[in-house]
Write a structure and sequence with these properties.
Helix content is about 65%, strand content about 0%.
Length: about 325
């Protein structure tokens, strides 16, 4: 009897083992799954926290200076002034600055006369106002002092008189691009910039570069560079001689010009002004009120209607 009971119990245990194993396996998997999910959630929270700290972390002055921002020494030069403003703003963006940081960081870059200006201006404002000064509120007086309208007027006048002499295409292009930023009234459209750029080039470039076929200024600049390369190749092949090395085939003509220059006149009979060395007829208007070109008051030389019409006809 006992043996029979033992056999029955053994059979029952053997029959229940797979079910028990399955139940245990399910419970273990459930526990493991809960533990894994818990760890995953904790990792997600840690990652989010790190990202939040990274995005909200304030940039220090040391980190700002590590980006090598340019100093400013106080030049009264609109081109240099605007260049400094632009480069400093770019460093702000890279360093992830806070809203209240730009003025404090930027004023740390001021040196010499620029530092003297800031010391005087900040003293007028007072410490409380300086602490809350925005970037825009700093830029306005800074530009007004270091980029005055008189200096901008001079750039516009020089822009109208800009002509290529011994400069390479890249050199004259850099001068053109530096000045054209301040000449919106004179060269405010792409077509006007193309016309002005073409007009300032030497004849050996203008004759081979057609501005009407260029839709952008960059296209015209590329054409001029290609022409410059071709001129250099011609010089190397001996097909073209540099003007300074050529001899004058007509000595009598050269002597005639020298005689005229001694008399203070050009070949057309226009005398040389003794005041500033350029050629013009009539009374010299330098230092007097009004336009140098037409003599009328109410507008400077670079905005003279007669001057502007002649520019557009180039």
């Amino acid at each position: 009897m006992n043996e029979r009971i033992g056999e029955e119990v053994k059979k029952a245990i053997e029959a229940s083992i797979p079910r028990l194993a399955q139940e245990v396996e399910g419970q273990v998997l459930e526990v493991v799954n809960k533990l894994v999910m818990s760890q995953v959630e904790e990792l997600k929270e840690m990652i989010n926290e790190l990202q939040t700290k990274k995005s909200t972390r304030r940039c220090t002055y040391k980190e700002f200076m590590a980006c090598n921002p340019l100093p400013y020494k106080g030049e009264i030069d609109p081109i240099a002034c605007q260049r400094w403003i632009s480069s400093t703003k770019a460093v702000f963006v890279r360093s992830r600055y806070e809203v209240e940081d730009p003025v404090m960081f930027a004023t740390g870059l001021l040196q010499l006369q620029a530092k003297d200006w800031w010391d005087a201006y900040s003293k007028e404002l007072g410490d409380d106002k300086v602490q809350t000064l925005t970037w825009q509120e700093f830029k306005e007086p800074f530009l007004k002092y270091h980029s005055p309208q008189s200096a901008i007027d001079k750039i516009q006048e020089d822009f109208l008189c800009l002509r290529q002499k011994d400069e390479t295409i890249d050199e004259i292009t850099n001068k053109f691009l530096d000045k054209v930023k301040f000449c919106g009234e004179i060269a405010g459209t792409e077509r006007l910039r193309i016309i002005r750029y073409h007009a300032m080039l030497k004849a050996e470039y203008r004759e081979f570069v057609n501005p009407s076929k260029c839709e952008t200024l960059n296209e015209l600049i590329d054409w001029a560079r290609d022409r410059e390369i071709e001129i250099r190749r011609q010089i190397e092949r001996g097909e073209k001689r540099v003007a300074e090395k050529t001899t004058n085939p007509n000595p009598s003509k050269e002597a005639k010009y020298q005689d005229q220059s001694k008399k203070g006149k050009t070949s057309s009979g226009i005398p040389t002004c003794k005041t500033y060395g350029k050629h013009h007829s009539g009374e010299c208007l330098l230092g007097k009120k009004g336009c140098y070109k037409c003599g009328q008051e109410g507008h400077p030389y670079y905005r003279c209607p007669k001057k502007f019409k002649s520019v557009l006809q180039l």
